[in-house]
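Bench log, entry 3. Co-assembly request; chain sequences pasted below exactly as received.
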Amino acid sequence: MKLGKEEIQKVVLGVLLFFGLIYSYFDLLLGPLSKRQEATQASIAALGPEIAKAKEQIEKTRQLELNADAAMLTARQVDTMIPEGSPVAWFPTRMTEFFKKQGIDKALTRMNGEMPDKELPGFRKLVWGVDLPKVEFVNFAEAVAALENQEPLFEIGALQIDASREDVESQHALITLNNLVKQ
Amino acid sequence: MALRLNLYHEVLKAKALKRRDPLKISIYALSAIAAMCACWYLIQFMKMHSMSDELARVKAEFDQVEPAAKAARKREEELTAQSQISTQLAKRMEGRFYWAPVLAQIMQVVPREVQITRMGGDISGEGLRRCMITIDGLSAGIDPRRVAEDLRTAIAEKFSPNYKNVTSTFKMLEDGTEMVMLDGKQTATAVFAINVQLYTGEEKSNAPVRKKR
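Structure output for the full assembly:
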C-alpha cells in the first residue's frame, strides 16, 4: 500500500495529536489527581496517630480524674486546717489559747518573717516567735508534744529554754515556729 | 466449470482501500486508547472521591476530639500540679522534726547531780536535716567533771538509735567557783556546755541525668 502525500500529512498530524493527547492526559488530568491522592493519603495517615493520641489523652485524664479524690485528700484537709483571714489576726490568739489549755498562762507571739515556699506554689511560710516567760520544763515539753501532734502545719524551727535564777522552779522558753499558710 | 467475471473489481478495490485507511485505523486506535484513559481517569477520580470522603470524616473526628484532648491536657496539668502539692504537703508534714522526743530523752538522761541552766536547739536543711542542740549546765559531786562527761556520753548513746551521725562534744568544761549542797554535803561543781549534733531525714535524691548520645 502506498501512502499519498496527503495521507502522510494526516498520519503525522495524527501522531502529533496522539502525543499531545497523552501529554495533556498525564500532565493535566492524571498527574494532579495523583498528587491530590498522595496529599490526601498523607493527611489521613497523619491524622490517624493524632486522633489516637488525643483519645489516649482523654482516657488518661479520665483515669486521673477518677483517682484525683484520693490524691488530693491531703490538700483538702490542709485547706480546712488554715483559717480564713490574715494569719496575724488568728495565729497569736490561737497560740495563746493553745498554751493556756496546756497550763501555760502567758504566751507572747509575734511574726518574725515571711517567705514564699518554692516547692509549694500557693503557700507561704511564716516564721513566728513565741515567748513563754514562765514555764515549767515538763509542762513545756508536754505542750511541745501536743503542739506537734495537733498542728501538722506547724514546725518548731528552734527553741531555747533558760533557767531563771530568781525562780528555780520555772524557766523562760522561746520557740521559733514555722507555719504554712495560703498565699 | 462456469466462468465468473467480476465486473465490480474497481469498486471493491476502492472499498478495500477505504477499509484499510490508516487515518481511520489511527482514529479507531486513538479512540480506544482515549476510552481506556478516560476509564482509568474515572476509576482514579472515584478513588480520589472516596479518599476525600475519608479525609473529611477523619478531619471531622479530629476536630471533635482535639478540643476535648486540649481541655483534658489542661485538666491533667491542673490535677498533676494539685496532686504534687498534696504529696509535697504530706511529705512536709511527715518530714517535720519533732522536738518533744528530744526533750523527753534529755530529761531521761540528766542525772540529779546536774542542773541544766540553758538549752537551745535549732534545725536546718532540707531532706537530710541537721539539728544542733546546746546544753549548758552545772554538774556537782565528788568528781563533777566525771558527772558532766557521763552526761555527754549518755546523751550520745540515748540519741544514737533514733538519729543519724550523732555527735556530742564539750564546748566548754570548767571547774565551778561555787559549792552546792547535795545530799547534805557541800560538793564541788563544774560548769559545762555540750554541743549535740544529729541528723534526721533522707538526703534529697537528684533527678537522674539522661545521657546524651
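Chain A has a mean pLDDT of 88. Chain A touches chain B through 67 residues (CB under 8 Å).
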